[in-house]
Each structure stands twice: as C-alpha cells, then as structure tokens.
Amino acid sequence: MPLRLSLIVLAALGLAACADAGDPAAPADAPAPPDVRTVLDAQERAFRDADMAALDGLWSADPDVVVFEQGGVDSSWAAYRDGHLGPELVALDSLDFRHRDVHVRTGDRLAVATGRYTLSAQHDGEPVESDGVFTTVFERADDGPWQIVHTHLSRPRR
Questions:
Q1: Residue 46 belongs to domain with CATH number
Q2: What gap in Å lies between CA 7 and CA 11, rounded to an integer?
Q3: What is the pTM of this model?
C-alpha cells in the first residue's frame, strides 16, 4: 500500500474522533468547513448525466487515488474513469444513482462520508438494480475545494 494511501486511511480512521461542524465544543468563531455533501450531490448528478468532465473536477488527479468496488481495485481516478466507470455510464440508460443515510465527519484537510447508495438503470433493455454501502474520503489542499481521493462501494452478496 503506497505511503500516501496508508496515511489517508489512518487519517480517515482518526476522523472518527474529530468534532464535526455542528460540535458545540468547536470555537464559535471557527469558519464552517466547505460542505462535503455538496460534492456527493454533484457526483450523483454527474453519474446520472454521464458527465465525465464534471467528475474530473470532483476527483483528485493524484496518482495515489484508489477505488475499491465490489472486490475490485482501480489504482487511480484515470484508471477507474477510463477502464471502469466511463464505459459503464455509456452502457447504462436512465441511470439513477443516489446516496442516502449519509454521515459526514470533517477534519481540516480530510473528510469521510459513509452511507448507503442505490442505483437503477437499463442495460440493453433490461433493468439493473443495485444498492449497498459506501465510504468516500475527501482531501482538501489549503483552502481549495474538497476532492475525492478514495471511495469504496460494496453491495450485499447475492
């Protein structure tokens, strides 16, 4: 496991002990962190619209980005986009992808969102349905936007 990914995973686990934006123990004059949920919502729209340019803006181009999906591993955003997600979005019609039961923990430079997802679509005229759980890790450089650096999607065994 690359050092940066190891550090991201360790930091993400450490976020469980962080105060979230609504924590009364946080200083009253501390600025509210940017809303990670906004990035998740933009990702949903981009999936539904098969908008790869929008997705490129949401994901980090860092080569240490890793995607875990249904037991598979993509070693970068480009590998996931070009070899996995992009072809799926082209092949699916009437795609509806949603996050639900979302919980977000935010630190200074890392945030973690967990919850459930649902997906419905048509492929070659046949219905496609999936649901499961997700974890998405976000990173922010200085005061820049939150970008996705890791996601893990998992559905129940069939």
A1: 3.10.450.50
A2: 6
A3: 0.75
List the structure tokens of 11.
């930091």
Can you tell me the distance from the alpha carbon of 99 to that of 118, in angstroms, rounded to the nearest whole number? Answer: 7
Could you give the C-alpha distances from 51 to 22, 61, 75, 104, 124, in angstroms and in order?
33, 17, 21, 24, 20
Q: Please check whether residue 58 is in contact with residue 42, taking contact to mean a CB–CB distance below 8 angstroms.
A: yes
Walking along the chain (158 residues) 10 residues at a time, the average pLDDT comes out as: 41 37 38 72 92 94 88 88 90 93 92 95 94 95 88 86
Domain range for 79 is: 3-19+35-154
DSSP class of residue 70 equals T
Looking at beta carbons, which pairs linking 130-134 to residues 24 or more positions away fall under 8 Å? 130/155, 131/155, 132/156, 134/99
Q: Which residues of 23-32 are buried (b: 16+ CB within 10 A; e: fewer)?
A: eeeeeeeeee
Question: Would you state the structure tokens that stand for residue 99, as one six-digit string?
Answer: 């996050």
What total number of domains does the chain contain?
A: 1
